[in-house]
Write a structure and sequence with these properties.
With 103 residues, the protein is an all-alpha fold. It is built from four helices and no strands. Residues 76-103 are annotated as: Disordered.
Length: 103
């Protein structure tokens, strides 16, 4: 069972035993309980006035999760790519040139 479903099941259980749980409570707890990878989306959700519904929040979180998974599936090795410089053809004769002044 995923985190969002667990939150919904727990909220339904609490309601069934008489605990007053609002949709705002569920959305807030969903955002608080997510790892730091989701910080940008949870900040965005928390900034909505009024807070989005549980189902809107669920949709936003699932879309964000899909994007995170697609980013992490890119497995190119960039550890040495920043040191690679393609050799450029020379733009003219440079033999014998020693720079500024002197021979």
């Amino acid at each position: 069972m995923d985190y969002i479903t667990q939150m919904r099941v727990l909220a339904n259980f609490l309601v069934s035993i008489g605990v007053l749980i609002t949709e705002k409570d569920i959305v807030t707890q969903l955002c608080i309980g997510l790892p730091q990878d989701y910080m940008s989306i949870t900040t965005s959700i928390s900034a909505h006035l009024p807070l989005p519904s549980f189902f809107e929040t669920r949709s936003l979180l699932l879309n964000s999760e899909a994007k995170l998974k697609s980013f992490s599936s890119i497995t190119t090795d960039t550890s040495q790519a920043s040191f690679y410089t393609p050799k450029q053809p020379s733009s003219g004769p440079t033999h014998g040139y020693r720079g500024r002044g002197g021979r």
